Amino acid sequence: MAATKDAKIRAFDKKSGKVLWEAQLPVPGYATPSTYSIDGRQYVVIACGGGKIGSKSGDQYIAFALPARK
């Protein structure tokens, strides 16, 4: 989830609601993150555009590689 004015993207535990991971984005990502896989590696990408509710504007896509499964 990244639809916050603080320009962070976060992953939550679906049962407890605990934040499992977070990262700083260059500007807020009010878009819905997407996930995809290449050669068995999973990625999450988000469009960072900002510009809403007084936040800084930008025009980048940021992708994160998820940890490899054990």
pLDDT < 50 runs, ≥5 residues: none
Pairing-aware structural class of the strands and helices?
Answer: mainly beta
Compute the gyration radius: what is it? 13 Å
Number of helices: 0
Overall pLDDT score:
89
Instruction: Please list the strands of the largest sheet in the order they lie side by side.
Output: 3-4-5
- Please trace the helix and strand order, writing H or E for each element: EEEEE
How many strands, which pairing sense, and closed or not: the largest β-sheet? 3 strands, antiparallel
Q: Estimate percent helicity.
A: under 10%
Taken from the alpha-carbon principal axes, the silhouette is globular
Strand content: over 45%
Number of strands: 5
Q: Termini distance?
A: 24 Å
Write a structural description.
- This protein is an all-beta fold and 70 residues long.
- The chain has one domain.
- The strands form 2 sheets. A 3-stranded antiparallel β-sheet has the order 3-4-5, with no helix packed on it. A two-stranded antiparallel ribbon has the order 1-2.
- The chain is globular and about 40 Å long.
- The two termini are 24 Å apart.
- The mean pLDDT is 89.
- Pfam families: PQQ (PF01011).
- This is PQQ-binding-like beta-propeller repeat protein.
- It comes from Paraflavisolibacter caeni.
How is the secondary structure organized here?
Elements: E1 8-12, E2 19-24, E3 34-38, E4 41-50, E5 57-65
Antiparallel strand pairs: 1-2, 3-4, 4-5
What are the salient characteristics of this protein?
mainly beta; 50% strand; Quinoprotein_ADH-like_sf; PQQ_rpt_dom; PQQ-binding-like beta-propeller repeat protein
